[in-house]
Amino acid sequence: MLEAFRLGGWGMFPTLVFGLLAVAASLRYAVRPDTRFVPLLVSSSLLTLAAGSLGFVTGLIASSNYIASAPDHRVWLIGLGESLNNVALALILVGAGLVATTIGALRAVNAPRSA
Questions:
Q1: How far is CA 102 from CA 18, 24, 31, 87, in A?
Q2: Which pTM was predicted?
Q3: Alpha-carbon gap, residue 102 to 97, rounded angstroms
Q4: Counted domains in the chain
Q5: Quick check: is 55 in a domain?
Q6: pLDDT digits over 40-49, tens only?
Q7: Distance between CA 20 and CA 58 in Å, rounded?
Q8: Most buried by CB count within 10 Å: which residue of 5, 26, 90, 91?
Q9: Closest Cα to residue 94, out of 53, 41, 55, 58?
Q10: pLDDT grade for 114, boundaries at 50, 70 and 90
């Protein structure tokens, strides 16, 4: 996992920070479901996906800069693989957050209603 983080480059850091925020908000929602946390859940998850996508795109841009000077033009495949680490981290973190959010939603639906 550390190797994947290193290969992903600088884009892994904002993806990790925003992803941990999304997971923390999701865990908070799972423990005590409250509708006021829903906008935070949605926005932090979208921000995580956006950061992962930005890391992916900037990684491809960096790889594209070296294609012309590389002796083997398949270097873009290596860059593509390294850049996909950003997307993978984003999907892992958002997926973990969605599991916690689903638990919170189930708890909210099954909670006794007060009159």
A1: 19, 14, 11, 22
A2: 0.86
A3: 9
A4: 1
A5: yes
A6: 999 999 999 9
A7: 22
A8: 90
A9: 41
A10: low
